[in-house]
Specification:
Blueprint (H helix, E strand, L loop, with lengths): L9 E4 L1 H5 L4 H9 L2 H12 L5 H10 L8 H8 L6 H11 L3 E8 H11 L3 E5 L1 E4 L2 E6 L6 H15 L6 E5 L5 H6 L2 E5 L3 H6 L2 E3 L15
Parallel strand pairs: 1-2, 1-6, 2-3, 6-7, 7-8
Antiparallel strand pairs: 4-5
Helix pairs in contact: 2-3, 2-5, 3-4, 5-7
């Protein structure tokens, strides 16, 4: 178990359109020729108009036949959100634990986390057979309930009360996690999320450091 400073807070972030500027499923779909239809489904899911698990399975189905090498291609395309590196470095410097929980994919989230020195990551996995994607998710979908449960599990593991947790996200799949945390921050978020969160922030990700939970 990690040791935390007395003033530490657990900070858990979404990945797609929060830690990074884009949506990985859309980047993958770009290689499958299905980006327009996948982007439309993503928008509806992020606005909360359709069930996330259903929407994810529909989008992943369009990826069938892609070689596993596509993950390296997408990792090369990913752009970290301005301020992401600075935010993570500041939190780690304080001894605050940081976690990533994503409705995206572990195949991309894990290397990103490793690059940033983050060890706690929870995301979906894509089913692979004979070196190609099958178009199915491997295991339970990381939906909004799973995100909130992951936040609570990490806090328990760290020995931190929920009153010392912060969650940051942008889409409807983050709503339960934002509600469960002591402070839920909507970042560059859809209107439904900005309205439900404790506070909404736009622009650089490290702008959250000006908020009360991060005050020294």
């Amino acid at each position: 178990m990690d040791t935390c400073t007395a003033a530490a807070r657990l900070v858990v972030m979404d990945v797609d359109s929060t830690l990074i500027t884009g949506e990985v499923v859309e980047m993958l779909a770009g290689h499958a020729g299905s980006r327009p239809v996948v982007a439309e489904i993503t928008e509806r899911a992020m606005r909360g108009e359709i069930d996330f698990a259903q929407s994810l399975r529909e989008r992943v189905a369009t990826l069938a036949g892609l070689p596993v090498s596509v993950f390296d291609d997408v990792l090369a395309e990913v752009e970290l959100t301005p301020g992401a590196v600075e935010l993570v470095a500041e939190l780690q410097g304080r001894g605050w634990p940081v976690g990533l929980v994503s409705g995206g994919f572990m195949e991309v989230a894990r290397p990103l986390a490793t690059r940033l020195g983050i060890t706690r990551v929870h995301a979906n996995r894509l089913e692979v057979r004979d070196g190609v994607l099958t178009g199915r998710v491997d295991g339970p979908v990381v939906d909004r309930a799973a995100k909130a449960a992951t936040l609570a599990a990490w806090a328990l593991e760290l020995g931190l009360p929920m009153s010392r947790t912060v969650a940051i996200g942008d889409g409807a799949n983050d709503l339960d996690m934002l509600a469960a945390a002591a402070t839920g921050i909507a970042f560059n978020a859809k209107p439904v999320v900005a309205q439900a969160a404790d506070v909404a922030v736009a622009g650089r990700l490290d702008a959250v450091l000006t908020l009360a939970p991060f005050a020294a």
